[in-house]
Amino acid sequence: MPSPAKINLSLWIKGKRPDGYHEIVTVMHTINLFDVLSFHPSDRFELEIVGNDTLPLNKGNLIVKAANIFKEATGIKPKVGIRLKKRIPVGAGLGGGSSNAASTLKGLNEIYGNPLSEKELYQLAAQIGSDVPFFIKGGLALAYGRGEKIRNYNPVNFKLLLVYPNFQCSTAEVYQNLPPIKRDISPEDAEKFVISPLVSGKIEEAINNMVNDLELSRAPCIEGVKKVKKVLENIGLKPLMSGSGSSVFAILTGSISDLTPLKNSGWWYKFLSAV
Ligand SMILES: C[C@](O)(CO)[C@H](O)COP(=O)(O)OP(=O)(O)OC[C@H]1O[C@@H](n2ccc(N)nc2=O)[C@H](O)[C@@H]1O
Ligand SMILES: Nc1ncnc2c1ncn2[C@@H]1O[C@H](COP(=O)(O)OP(=O)(O)OP(=O)(O)O)[C@@H](O)[C@H]1O
User: Which of 221, 261, 270, 271 holds its CA 20 to 30 A away from the CA of 16?
Assistant: First the structure.
């Protein structure tokens, strides 16, 4: 089962909630950068990871967390082996772990004859993490609350350049080091600023309205993100950090003058598309 990455086309912080999370409004789109989960029968639940030797294999892995939540909700002990082929950079703001968790919930639900309704899938996803409900459907969506409330739209086509600067950002650390921010923005505003121009092909207007308030964080990793943004700005692009970082993307509306500075950076980069 393909497990896509996502980028945040915008992320606005409305304020801090009593539960310690931040109230946000964000626009996300899945992209054609995938992990792959394969499920096979086994006498007990087991996880194998290929392509990454630092991720945990125990309940610290969001795939195991998703399988445990599936078991608690359905009473079914999954007798399934999952093989994860990891390609999405970790700690990059691309939602890799969240995407894997959503794919695990959907995969187990399918294998055991759909004991969970779509509504229940969303409820379980929200228990795993704020980004997980988005990945139940993917495509183009608006997320709000702490990110678990979702409005889906028809996916749009655009190409992008994605840069991963070979260091991670911790989501918690980025949020915890935010200065006080109180954006007065609603999901309807996000539709007006970003979604409507995107779906009506006014890509430049959408790009000019895009912002990521998490770039204001004082977390140390953001300094590195700013260096990546500078290099992309110097080659004529309008870059934005994805999610809590560390990756930076730029939507492509034409050709790029000169890639030399990026080639000399040693950073990982790919030309990708929205899916
Ligand atoms: C940055 C984004 O990826 C943008 O899509 C999401 O907002 C974060 O989603 P996520 O990685 O699934 O985050 P979670 O695993 O739910 O939370 C990790 C930590 O990030 C912080 N967090 C997360 C979401 C949110 N709306 N406010 C927060 O303050 C909290 O400290 C939380 O303990
Ligand atoms: N299956 C998994 N894939 C990737 N990370 C995982 C997974 N399970 C647990 N994690 C942990 O989650 C953290 C980061 O996950 P992830 O790669 O989703 O970060 P991210 O891309 O910044 O996601 P987000 O945009 O949701 O913040 C790391 O500390 C990693 O160890």
Answer: 221
